[in-house]
Amino acid sequence: MRDWNALYHAWLAHPHLDAESRAELLAVAENVEEIKDRFYCDLAFGTAGMRGVLGAGANRMNAYTVRKATLGYARYLKKYRGEEALARGVVIAHDNRRMSREFCMETAGVLAAEGIRAYIFEDLRPTPELSFAVRYTHAVGGVMITASHNPPEYNGYKLYDEHGCQLMPRETDVLTLMVEEIEDPLAIRAATGEELDGMLQVLSRDVDEAYYRAVLDIRLQNVDAGALSVVYSPQHGTGNLPVREVLSRCGYRVIPVEEQCFPDKDFINTKSPNPENKEAYELSMEYVRREHADIAITTDPDCDRLGVIAKRGEEYALLSGNQSGAILLQYILSCHQNSGTLPRNAVMCNTVVTSTLGDRICESFGVAVQKTLTGFKFIGDKIREWEQNGERTFLFGYEESYGCLVADFARDKDGVQASLLLCEAAAYYKSKGKTLWDVLEELYRAHGYFLDAVTSLTLAGAAGVKMINQKLEALRADPPREAGGIAVTRVEDYLSPEMGEKGFPPSNVLRFLLADGSFVAVRPSGTEPKCKYYYCVVGANAGDAAQKHRLLRQTFER
Fold first, then answer.
1. Rounded Cα gap, residues 471 and 57, in angstroms
2. Which of 225, 379, 522, 530 has the most neighbouring CB atoms within 10 Å?
């Protein structure tokens, strides 16, 4: 068992610990639980890289944990890519969060000390542009400093391969072992000053322009953009410039939520930067009502997710990620079908926790569906596979958590692409006298009413992680045979050999398929101390689905 108290004192006594971190650790000297939480484990890679609360300690985001991860990454590249890694280099980008620029420079410094060239941007950039830039510069990999939609006290660190895709478990498993071999993160050296000469290059605006052109190329048809009024908020993050730029070039009437359009590390004018939380939309809702706009859109701080408000009758209402994804999918497939450009081997990707409404839409167009585990890297990896073998033509990928990808010049979810195509779809449907909610209701009439919901149980700390795992094990050992009077027809355990044979990497996920077409999935969050429950409920109407949902929650969240 790890001696977390000894590690705490080892950090305090270390000659390389900076004064601010030492003072922070001394301030919690009497708080045993706090010390334990900071040192009981090392901050590890989850679904979307390394992410955690900022602060001093082995289980916190700080310069030392960033240096340790980067040294492990550098050793991984040198071992498995050799001299090529040194020659091609690594692109690093960052968002608006606390310490993001500093962590960017720490990453560049450690890479430089290991003889690997680093490319950085002059200031903050969105995650999808980092993915694009890796491919554009032919770099051997990439690093994104971001905690995405997490609260202000978090930051994070994502690693990308040469395809612009986040590293897969087969790679992070090896990399993690190399990181764990590093015994003293406080002794890792990062190059500074003149040592960086020739090893650090600031990317020009040409990369931005190339990215904008690629985004603009995803448009499917000409629409009257000027007829659509769009409220937009970047939630104080990286989407402000790219989203407004591409929408402006297309002629959309964009009304910015000015209070949230400047970068801010504390997100001072938003209660939540997460599009999954209704608090994220409070100012946007005020704007869209006041301006009588057609829609309001918001991107999260690193601009890989898109949230949408649309007119519903005489009021405005939020669309979930499942709903906006289904509307985009319908629009994309119908455009291709109408223009005769729908490939015979077309495929749509979504995850095992995404609503199956998208599956039914694809079935109506004769388009294949590929399921992956949660985490957009799994979709990006499938794109790479099809690119190499030519078996499928990727048309769209999306997750229930507001992330989607239209064109594969990026290999991560892209809020800039999503913003542009969502506005195009809204403008097109407006020309037909329809709102986005009207389109969704048409889909429900055609395919059944879908109620999709996610609930979370938050249990922080070491004890919380243990309890979450115990809940999964209890469901695994004694799965319900029926829920709400509906038979459970199949249980998919993604830790089982059966799911491994179907191409799924081992993952602590359970998915319960019900006789009426509904499903319930349960998994620990890869980025937060939560147990997440995903419900896809198929009903005859809204009331029927809501009643089923209540009964399912009583069964699975007991």
1. 28
2. 379
Contact status, residue 183 vs residue 71, Cβ threshold 8 Å: no
Rg (CA), the chain: 23
For 79-113, give the DSSP string. Answer: HHHTHHHHHH-EEEEE-SSTTHHHHHHHHHHHHHH
Token digits of residue 326: 């289904």
- Alpha-carbon gap, residue 185 to 183, rounded angstroms: 6
Element (H, E) at 211: helix 206-216
Q: What is the per-residue pLDDT for 360?
A: 98
Distance separating alpha carbons of residues 361 and 365, to the nearest angstrom? 7
Which residue is associated with the tokens 């077409």?
517
pLDDT, tens only, 369-421: 999 999 999 999 999 999 999 999 999 999 999 999 999 999 999 999 999 99
CA distance 548 to 69: 45
Q: What value does the mean pLDDT take over residues 543-551? A: 95
Nearest to 216, CA basis, from 27, 376, 70, 406 = 406
Q: At what angle do helices 415-431 and 240-250 cross, to 10 degrees?
A: 30
Spatial CB neighbours of 26, under 8 Å, sequence gap ≥ 6: 12
Judged against a pLDDT cut of 70, whether residue 526 lies above it is answered with no
pLDDT in tens, 203-221: 999 999 999 999 999 999 9
Query: Would you please indicate which residues are annotated as catalytic (active-site) residues?
Result: 148
